[in-house]
Every structure is written in structure tokens, then in C-alpha cells.
Amino acid sequence: MNLQSVPIEWYLSLSAVLFTIGVIGVVTRRNAIIIFMSIELMLNAVNLTFVSFAQFLGDSAGQMFVFFVMAVAAAEAAVGLAIVLALFRNKQTVYVDQVNVMKW
Amino acid sequence: MSLQVIMFMILGVGAIVTALGTITRRNPVASAMNLVAHFFMLSGLYLTLQAQFVAVVQVLVYAGAIMVLVVFVIMLLNVGKEEAHHESFTIRKVLGLVFAGAIVVQMLAIYLGSSPSAMSQLSSKSLTLGATESIGTVLFNQYLFPFEVISLLLLSALIGAVILAKRKVD
Amino acid sequence: MNDFILAAPLVAMSFLSVICIVVDALSPKPGKIPFMFAGFSLLGALLLTIPTFWYHGTAFQNMITVGGYSAFFDVLFLIGGLLTLFAGRPYIAREHFDHDEFYSLIMFSVAGMMVIGHSNNLLISFIGIEIMSVSFYVLSGYLRKSIRSIESALKYFLLGSFATGFLVFGIALLYGATGTLEFPAMHAAVVADKLNFPNLLTVGIALVLIGLSFKAAAFPFHQWAPDVYEGAPTVVTAFMSTAGKAASLSALIPVIAAVVPQTNWKVGMVLAVISAATMLVGNISAVVQSNIKRMLAYSSVAHAGYLMMGFVANNPNGMTGVLFYSAAYLFMQIGAFVIVSLIEKENDGNLQLADYAGLSKRNPVLAALMALFMFSLAGIPPMAGFFGKYYLFIAAVEAGYTWLTIVAVISSMISVYFYIGLVVTMYFKDSTDTTEQDSKPGLAGVTLAISCAFVIILGLFPQLIEKLAHSFFM
Lengths: 104, 170, 474
Hints:
The complex is a heterotrimer of chains A (about 100), B (about 170) and C (about 475). By secondary structure, chain A is mainly α. In chain A, about 75% of the residues lie in helices and about 0% in strands. In chain B, about 75% of the residues lie in helices and about 0% in strands. The N and C termini of chain B lie far apart (about 65 Å). The chains are: A mainly alpha (about 100), B mainly alpha (about 170), C mainly alpha (about 475). The interface of A and C includes residues 69, 83, 91 and 101 of A.
């Protein structure tokens, strides 16, 4: 059988780096849609962690979790984009720093 | 270097580059396209991990459904390029960046600093684990309850999206 | 089939919340039918919880626990849902937004909270938290013509899903460290010290704590709370800041029990610092607020700090305190927010503390009830809030955290200043404008009566619940 020669630490490190890129995106960007995409980056990094742990442990729970994370991401996408739409109708903007009736 | 290592390097570097592209592009459509490319890179990484079903679903759900929705909204709102603005580095942003840096350093220290772990190879079960058959078996037996409950989440998101985005409710 | 009977309240609630939408769609015009349906569903589920108190076990392939503290939280969340329903109907009618989806969304969030309370697996906790959060995102933006409401929904959504990212990352690391998602197996792995990477467990717990303290609005991730609670519809705020907070913290109960052995002082110390900072920051910020919703929002941050003292103590008494205080806090805070929603005028009028001057003359009943809830929130005996704090403080001292108790007492004293300040404004200051008419309470009167009754009953007979709660953790 053709077993893996790439150690698990590499996969995990890669996903930690990707997660951090997502966090940086959320913190620095001001377009609500791009912030949302950065959150998707974070969730995907987590999925990579789950799959690598699952495959190295030989356990199915990690892969299952990935499907549920995907379902959650889809639900959040629907609600989040609806909120952005409603915001745009009210204020004609998608920039979070222009939304400050209350202080941000 | 074996073939797997080369594949991992290509896909991993690709994933990082496209992720950086997503968070740095001024044009939201360019960001979205980078993100789609990112999802394909991740899908490739899942294939190198022998998780075939996850790899396919990744492309179908993320690239096929979620990103279409995102691009649709970008087009609908006609969001242009973000005008370059004087970068205001608030204390919150600085704290956030420091925090993000702390996470990645901590994680890398744990992974790369540790002595070789017990999981140096893919488990021998991993080939069958990632196949559609075994996933279906587990999902509809052991994971039936969460599978049913997640439908509540999807339904409430559906209703919520309709309430928030409908032009006129009467 | 047996599983369905054991988990009857949860299963019934899930089914009925789905049917509620169908009822909405079929019933003509915004009307009584969906409201009645939602009300009777919650009542029915409440009745179904009674037998589960006498059962301890798991159901659905060990996915959920039945009985014990999850039965207690079921009752709490269902009552919270009922109170919100009664107060919500007149409120959304007054805001001219009486669409029946409101009731289904309340039911969905209650179902989500119940899922959290029943969780025996990190996956279930995660799903429950998400069902609750997604419903809350929508509910806080429910008045979608109002820019404040939409703004609060946007903030809540972006920061909430950011927190979700940390939560799942933490869960992934816990999974990697212990090799399982089930709490009992996790506990076994931690006790036997069979962990895959050293230190991974600690980082995992830290990230889960970050995610959950975001959701429960604890320091240092509380900044969203005042803005979101101020902008959201007042009745929704009442629900989010009480039942939502209790549910987020109830997710911690099995996690702490599974992965933090009582000898681990490091996690205890981190929790203690978070708890102390949360109460101080919440109470001190509340002192300077002039908007009553913001004041109550900061006070709810402080109450998250008190609740976390139970987790710091990490002993049966501490958990008992968490359960008791969750119940007491639910009733007093919902009561206070519902009064705010009655005094509030359309377009966010009448929300300043100054607007409460002379309320005792204008509306003596509301003023008396508000005073009662304020005394309870401040922790003045013999109200429910006093005994809740008392149990938590005792538990913390028992576990050796005397300094934390001293901080808690000091911050309670700070909180007396603004709680009693409101009472003074209502009773001893004259209103500038005597022509104002407050809206009739209507159905919200039911909410107020129930909350008031529970605040007094829990204050007079605290041992009723204390004994019951204690038996869950022996």
C-alpha cells in the first residue's frame, strides 16, 4: 500500500498558517463581503486540520465534522449575505467603518 | 523528494498564495476568484490525504454553491474597488495582529518543535475511511442525530435570509 | 424508539419548530394562530421535560445526554422562550413588524439551546451553538427597516462567525490531542495522559474558551455586546442576553468536566482572571452609561463574570451555583428588559435613564416591578439574585479562590450604584414631561408576572432549586 511520506506536522502547520491569514483578513479589511470570505478561509483551515487528524488517526469523526462545518458555512453564507443586502438597502454601503450609528 | 512531497509543496504554496490574494485584493471579485482557487488547492490537499469524498464535496459546496452566492451578491450590489484609504491602525487592529501572530507561532512551535509524533504515517484505515461508502455508513448510523439536527440550522437560515432580504413583506 | 421517548422534549421541540413555519404559511394574515401554536408547543415541551428529571443516561448512539442538568436547562430555556413570546407579540405589533416568522425563529433558537444543553459530543455542542447563533443573527436584524437593527445584526454576524472560527479550531485541536469528540472518551484520554501532541490540549481549551466567551460576551471579547444589545429589538435583547448567555456557558459544563481535571490550576487561573476582569469591566462601564439598554447590556457582561466563578471553582457547589444563578438571572434580566420595551417609544425613543424620572407617579406598578428586578440584579436579599451570588461566592472560596470572591464583592458594590441609581431616578426625581403615556402591557404583563413571581420564590425558597441542582453533580 502506498502510504504517505509527508508528515502530519506539515499539514497541521499549513492549516495554522492559513487560519492566521484568515484572522488577519478579518481584522484588517473593511468590506463586509471580504471579511466574510476571510471567515470562510478560517473555517477551511480548520477543515484541513480535521481531515489530517482523521486520516492520521484512522478515525471517522474528524471527516464527519468537516461535513457539518460545511453545512454551517453554507447557512452562515445565506444569512450573512442577506444581512449585507439589507444593510446595502438602508445605507448604500458595504464598508463596516461607515456603519456607525452606534459606535463600532 | 518523493512525489507526495512535491505535490504537497505545490498545493501548499498555492493555498497560501491564493489565501493571501483573497485578503489583499482591493477588487472583491478578484478576492472571490482567489478564494475559489484556494478551494481547489485545498481539495487537492484532501486528495493527497486520501480523503476523496471530502475533496469532491469541497469543490461542490464551497466553489460551486457558496462562492456563486458570494459573487452573485457582489455583482448585485455592484461593489467597486475599495478606494485606497489612509490606513488607520487602531489599537484593536494592532491587538488583533499581535494575537494572530501569537497563534501561529504557538501552533508552529507545538507541531515542529515536538519530537516525531506517533502519527508519522497515514493510518492504514485511511484509504477506506475517505471513500463514499464508509462515509455513508457512518453518517447514517452513528451520526444520524446530528445529521437530522443540522436541518434545523439550514431551515432557520433559509427563513432568516428570506426575512432579511425580501424587498417587501406583507 | 426508546431514544425518542427519552429525548422527548428535544425531539418534540425540533419537530414543532419546523411545523410552526407551516402553520405560519397556512394561517391567514398575521394573527393569533401561529402565536398560539408556538405558545402551546413550548408549554407541551415543558410538560415533557418533567419525567426526564428522573433519568440519567445517553441516547442516539451516545450523542446526547438525557436527564440531570440538561433537563434543568431544558426547563430554563423553554420558560425563557415562553416569556419572550408573550412579551414579543405586543412589541412587534407596536413596531409594525408583526410577521409570524418571529415565533418560528424564537422556537428555532430554543431548540438550538436545548441541543447545547443535551450535548455529549463536541459536534453536538457546535451544532447547537450554531442553530442558536444563526437564529439570533436574524432576530437582531428583525426590524430590517431600522438601520440600528441591521447594524447590530451585521456586527453580531461578523463577530459571531469570527468567534465560531476560533471555536471550531479549538475543537479540532482537542480532537487531535485526544483522538475523539465524545466527552467521556475525551475524559478517559486526558486522565490516562494518552495525548498525541504535548500542549495541544491546552491551546485547544484556550481557543474553545475564546470562542465561547465571545458568544457569552465575557472579557476581553465583550465589546460587541453593548452595540448589539442596544440595536437589536428590545425583546430579542432580553432573550439573547439571558437564555443565550446561559446556553453558551452551559456548553462549557461538559467541556470543563471532560478536559480540565480538578488539579489543573493553570486553566482555573486563566478562568479566574477572565471572570474577575469580566465583572469589573462590565460594572465599571455600566456606571457611565446614559442609555438604559447599554447599561443593562454592560450589566449582563458583568453577570457572565459572576457565572464563570462557578467554572473557576469547578466543584459540585460551583456548578450548582451556575445553574441557580442562570435561573435567577434569566428571570430578573428578562423582567428588566421587558419593562424597558414597554416604556420605549417607536424609533428608539424613551431609552435614556432620564426618561425614567417620575415613573413611580406615572406608572406605579411598572416602577415597583423595575425596582424589584433592580434589587435582585444588585444582589440584595431576599431576592433570587442574592442567593445566586451567595452560592457562587461560597463555591469559589471553597476552591481556594478567596481573592476572586473579594473582587466579586467589590464589583457587586459598584453595581449597586447604578442599579439603585435607577430606582432613585424613578422614585425621587420629577418627570419633566407629564403628558407621556406608556403603552399598555397587554400580554407582556404575563411575562412580568411570571418573572416577578420566580424572582421572589427563588429568593424565599432557594433550597428548592439548590438541592435539585446539587444532585446533578454528585
